[in-house]
Amino acid sequence: MDTKRLNLSDSELRQIVNDHFTTCDSADQAYRIVQTALEPFSPCPEGFLADHYALKVTIERNGQTELLSFFVKCLPTENPVLRSYLEEIGSFRKESSVLQRIVGSIQRHCPWRTVAPRVHLAVEEQLLVMNNLKSNGYSVVKREGGLLEVVFVQQALETLANLHACSFVLEQKQGKRLPELFPTVLNENAWVQTSTSTRVKDVANVIKLYTELVKICDHWHGPRKQTILERLAPLIRKIYTYVEPSHEFRNCLNHGDLWCNNIMFKCDGQGQPIGCALVDYQLSRYVPPAYDINLLLYLTTSRQLRDENLTALLDHYYKCFVDTLERNQVNASEIYPRETFLRCCEHYRLAGLIHSTIISGEVTLPSKFLEEIFGDLQSTASFMPDTKVWICVKAFQADERYRKHLIELLDELFAYV
């Protein structure tokens, strides 16, 4: 694949390589770019909101040839409807700003853990070139339905604890809240209520999807089914109240999109996780840390795992959170006393449950149905276009694992009906 597809100039290529070397303590060494190549990042699409490539740059320095690999994320070139949608929600502008301006500042306060990739180059609002975490030993852990084992969840919580804690550290050091330091960067772009927004139609279609699933599934019946159908829409739409900054609890940078493909793990020789980095910060927001925590737990664990391990997992997060603050000379009790933290987690439990329900219809689809979506431009034209609703319904009817997972999630959600 020709790198001309990216329209990168020679100076931009050198900027990418130069920035790479600044992270390797070898920025002063001369080099020559021999050739470049562009490849699909993986055989199957890694996400729904961009095209992903591996940029391979062969260089020569000190008489030796080296191959450098970078991760490239760009606006879709062959799907103008999706491209227009991404421009509407400002995903590239947001991710570029969050990673370069906010996460870059946060990362300096937790140098012992990689919380996100480093942006080497951002081109307007259409292209990002980052370090390839795969080259550093990170990978997405593929599990059935995206559900992880406890040790992986613990690692993800450690990274969240570092991200959240160092967000507070940054505010303490600067004497200002993030929205003051970075105006408009963390404005909500996922769950918005602007009448002309495609995302409003997406949420309406999610409600249509789950209404249809409740109707066709005999798991719910009689008066209970009717009550669910009457109250489903207002329950889903409660998400809008949770994505605004809280007036009761301290807010911080939240990743905001913690499904399995956005969580990369580094494992030892025995396959045990020893590190975790988060990718795709295009839907980040400024809310209390418990939003991210609950979102992670509902998207990556089964109900049984949560029932058996929730207290221990929250303890693990809080211990890491306190430790990170203390390593930066910040008193955790001034930010989140333990009792306040637990109260916050309980308050945002429904937020994580609603958010995970909204996106699980899509992100847990079996591969057969994902292929159908990626093979149809209209099915990828937004988060939940009409055509995708009926693909999800078809998957629910045909795939037992998918059906059981959604029923389990909906059962917990409907406890609030």
From TrEMBL:
<dbReference type="InterPro" id="IPR011009">
    <property type="entry name" value="Kinase-like_dom_sf"/>
</dbReference>
<dbReference type="InterPro" id="IPR015897">
    <property type="entry name" value="CHK_kinase-like"/>
</dbReference>
<feature type="domain" description="CHK kinase-like">
    <location>
        <begin position="128"/>
        <end position="327"/>
    </location>
</feature>
<dbReference type="Pfam" id="PF02958">
    <property type="entry name" value="EcKL"/>
</dbReference>
<protein>
    <submittedName>
        <fullName>CHK kinase-like domain-containing protein</fullName>
    </submittedName>
</protein>
<dbReference type="InterPro" id="IPR004119">
    <property type="entry name" value="EcKL"/>
</dbReference>
